[in-house]
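thread: overnight batch results

M.L. [08:02]
morning all. the overnight job finished for the chain we discussed friday. pasting input first so we're all looking at the same thing
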Amino acid sequence: MTQPLIQIESLSKFYGVVRALEGVSFDIRAGEIHALVGENGAGKSTLIKALGGAHAPSEGRVLVSGQPLSCGVTASEAAGIATIHQEITAFPHLSAEDNIFVGREPRLGGIFINRGQMRRETRALLTQLGENFDSARPVGELSVARRQMVGFARALSQKSKLLILDEPTASLSERECVALFKVIRALQSDGVAILYVSHRLDEIFALANRVTVFRDGRHVQTCDIGEVDKAGLIRLMVGREVVEERDESGRGVPGEAVLQVENLSREGAFRDVSFQVRAGEIVGLAGLVGAGRSEVARAIFGVDKPTAGVVKISGAILPSGSVGKAVARGVALVPEDRQHQGLVLAMTVGENLTLSVLERLARGPGRDKKAERTEIAKLMKDLSVRAAGPDIPAQSLSGGNQQKLVVGKWLASQPKVLILDEPTRGVDVGARAEVYRLIRQLAGQGMAALVISSDLTEILALCDRILVMREGVVSGELPREGATQEKILELALPEK
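M.L. [08:03]
and the structure it wrote out:
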């Protein structure tokens, strides 16, 4: 039998008393798509960091084509390992071209950077990924999805032997996913090994040749994808039955309109957007990436100031362009970009969870420590936050657990209107069910929820009504009954 490209042998990683990985062993073959699945905190991110050279293992080793892999990012790249991380690590002030070739810039005469070659190769890579945007534009001005595509382009340019994709479709539209899958299959046919890490199990079954399951830092099983079904894979991941299905129970008749958006416009982003969300109602906002969904959410919450229109909360006009006034009126936003907009990564888990309720916890010049600890413990339990404790930095958590912190921070404020932009991005199947349950529970208590998601199964599972945006305008509305992915896409796709 041909020697595997990657052999992981008895790999363990400990952070003090915290066990992130323990005795993990499996292999990855050249030219295969190997899926890696498990709940948040199962050890997937730790393994990725070990393979990518960011963290040295405490025990065990990694072999690449039979040779031990030295620790260090440079050593991993030299061995042909490239990683597309779940959290985008681009330099926001640099262009796509600079991000793709940083540290590897082509030279003229060995001295000057060959900008023309960089531009040509960047355009070719983006075209391969189905993208067409100004590659000289600063990456920080691009959408999260396009920043992700710049990361893919960089990995493609490195001509790697092993490409690690960590939640690669979390921020992508259906069109971008199709383009990415085409590239992944082309790389596979060229003999590149793909380690595909995702919570989207439908993608796992559509793409993978084999799947490895982690649970609690240990290797549970590796098998051919045809040897397990979706229910069996979930059982292996979580060690219990998880039922994730569309909620058909209903929550009664919605109350009065809490959020009213009237003819809201922002030049270059969206125009004449009007809708309302009533008390006890969950409204979905669907559409392709770039349709203007996140921009509408930012304008409602006061991050961006609209050029026309108004937002009303319980009939009273909300002053535009002020996050503080929006929060004071009971509006909360769980943003798409958790690391840059949702969390203070250097602060602790507990400090992040109570950021929105500091005024409520205030006691004179300090805080009510007992009430704070109770609040933190409840939120961590409700959201199943997997952390060594509330006093560790938020940046030490897995991406999915970081997402739970952002959701929990705003749930603590008990908002009247909760806007969730990609609420389960990077969240495992068990935690996703918990997030859905909490959103439904809050809606049942009278909260108005606006859910923005690129995952159409999520929109269909959660929402009472579905608004669809296309090219900056609301192109249609679908009732809960009879709504399908096909009907949503029909309204979302550009008119021919």
